[in-house]
């Protein structure tokens, strides 16, 4: 007899990786919730991704709002009246040129990852479920304090251009790790993809194999991966295996 599917809450569901994971989850019959500023936009994206309207109606609760609204976050972290078993956190800064030569890449909200992750963690703490959820956070390579996880050729790009968004991810990771240590969360998986690039017709037709590294145990260094590939990996390796071997690991994924 197969185990029941875990319930899943999505933050950043209109972003490429989380959206791809959500689309696969709904088609497979997972009960999900998602926070979205504009629910109509999320629904349109899911339909364009091939998700049937019936699957959206039956398996998805969309909570309108953003991470600045604690009540909206508390509602979105729940599925069918209970805190979700798994939380997929895919919120990230949208990079843009700042005009500052010392810090050329910025964004509209340079602390969005830390603010949003704390809002999710605070919601779980307030709701205090008996069964603590596992939080899956999409982070980035290039911020490991343990080992090098990016090609040497990318070091100037990562260190000189992406310092600000990477600092935001570092603070987010610390908040999540602290929440696990404090017993607010039941576990975590930090997923660090390599640099994002769009899929091509070739990668859509024959998806490249995903290499996986585990911080402190095995390396997987690569240049690029697509957002859809990350979403597919999250679905296949995290949701379909109910976290499994990845619990409490920090993993890097790349082509």
* Poorly predicted spans: none
- Rg: 17 Å
SSE series: EHEHHEHEEEEEHEHHEEHEEHE
Strand content range:
15-25%
Main β-sheet description: 8 strands, mixed
Cα distance spanning the termini = 35 Å
Number of helices: 9
Going by helix content, strand content and strand pairing, the class is alpha/beta
How many β-strand stretches?
14
The geometry reads as globular
How are the strands of the largest sheet arranged?
Answer: 3-2-1-6-9-10-14-12
Question: How much helicity do the residues have?
Answer: 25-40%
| Mean pLDDT, all residues | 92
Structure, described:
It is a single chain. The protein is an alpha/beta fold and 255 residues long. The chain contains 9 helices and 14 strands. An 8-stranded mixed beta sheet has the order 3-2-1-6-9-10-14-12, sandwiched between helices. A two-stranded antiparallel sheet has the order 4-5. Strands 7-8 form a two-stranded antiparallel ribbon. Helix 1 (16-27) crosses helix 9 (227-239), helix 4 packs across helix 5 and helix 5 packs parallel to helix 7 (163-181). The longest helix has 19 residues, at 163-181.
């Amino acid at each position: 007899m197969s185990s029941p599917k875990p319930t899943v809450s999505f933050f950043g569901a209109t972003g490429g990786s989380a959206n791809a994971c959500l689309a696969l989850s709904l088609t497979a019959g997972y009960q999900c919730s998602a926070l979205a500023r504009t629910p109509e936009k999320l629904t349109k994206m899911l339909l364009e991704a091939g998700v049937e309207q019936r699957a959206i109606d039956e398996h998805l609760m969309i909570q309108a709002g953003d991470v600045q609204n604690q009540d909206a976050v508390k509602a979105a972290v729940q599925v069918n009246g209970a805190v979700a078993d798994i939380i997929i956190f895919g919120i990230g800064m949208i990079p843009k040129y700042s005009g500052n030569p010392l810090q050329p890449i910025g964004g509209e909200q340079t602390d969005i990852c830390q603010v949003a992750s704390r809002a999710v963690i605070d919601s779980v703490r307030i709701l205090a479920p008996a069964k603590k959820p596992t939080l899956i956070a999409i982070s980035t390579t290039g911020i490991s304090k343990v080992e090098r996880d990016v090609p040497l050729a990318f070091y100037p790009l990562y260190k000189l251009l992406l310092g600000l968004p990477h600092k935001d991810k570092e603070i987010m990771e610390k908040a999540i790790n602290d929440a696990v240590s404090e017993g607010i969360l039941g576990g975590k998986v930090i997923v660090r993809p390599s640099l994002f690039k769009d899929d091509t017709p070739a990668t859509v037709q024959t998806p490249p194999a995903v290499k996986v590294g585990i911080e402190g145990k095995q390396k997987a260094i690569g240049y690029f991966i697509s957002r859809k590939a990350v979403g597919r990996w999250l679905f296949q390796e995290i949701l379909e295996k109910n976290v499994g071997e990845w619990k409490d690991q920090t993993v890097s994924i790349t082509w």
